């Protein structure tokens, strides 16, 4: 069975550029049952990283994504799978499913 690490980077405050979008936590909670239902043959492991909390325990890779969010290069919530960028800002299901289909569905 294919294993995929899903990370959602977010904050308690809604992104200023993402008016009317779900919160980061809502996105994190929403993505889990959607992926489980659509891809039953893939084992997803989920992590939520609060970009406003202490970053000492995070990998350099995670810190780089957080820095890019802080520098307004990317928006939150930001989703990665196996450390690859999937989507950021106003997350839509099609972005996620396209990524999974291209990278994992035939594995």
From TrEMBL:
<dbReference type="Pfam" id="PF07315">
    <property type="entry name" value="DUF1462"/>
</dbReference>
<dbReference type="InterPro" id="IPR038218">
    <property type="entry name" value="YuzD-like_sp"/>
</dbReference>
<protein>
    <recommendedName>
        <fullName>Disulfide oxidoreductase</fullName>
    </recommendedName>
</protein>
<dbReference type="InterPro" id="IPR009190">
    <property type="entry name" value="DUF1462"/>
</dbReference>
<dbReference type="InterPro" id="IPR036249">
    <property type="entry name" value="Thioredoxin-like_sf"/>
</dbReference>
């Amino acid at each position: 069975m294919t294993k995929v690490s899903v990370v959602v980077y977010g904050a308690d405050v809604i992104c200023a550029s993402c008016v009317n979008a779900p919160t980061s936590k809502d996105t994190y909670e929403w993505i889990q049952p959607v992926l489980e239902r659509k891809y039953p043959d893939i084992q997803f492991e989920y992590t939520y990283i609060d970009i406003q909390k202490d970053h000492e325990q995070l990998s350099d890779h995670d810190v780089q994504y957080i820095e890019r969010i802080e520098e307004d290069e990317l928006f939150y919530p930001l989703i990665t799978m196996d450390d690859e960028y999937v989507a950021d800002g106003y997350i839509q299901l099609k972005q996620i499913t396209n990524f999974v289909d291209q990278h994992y569905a035939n594995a």
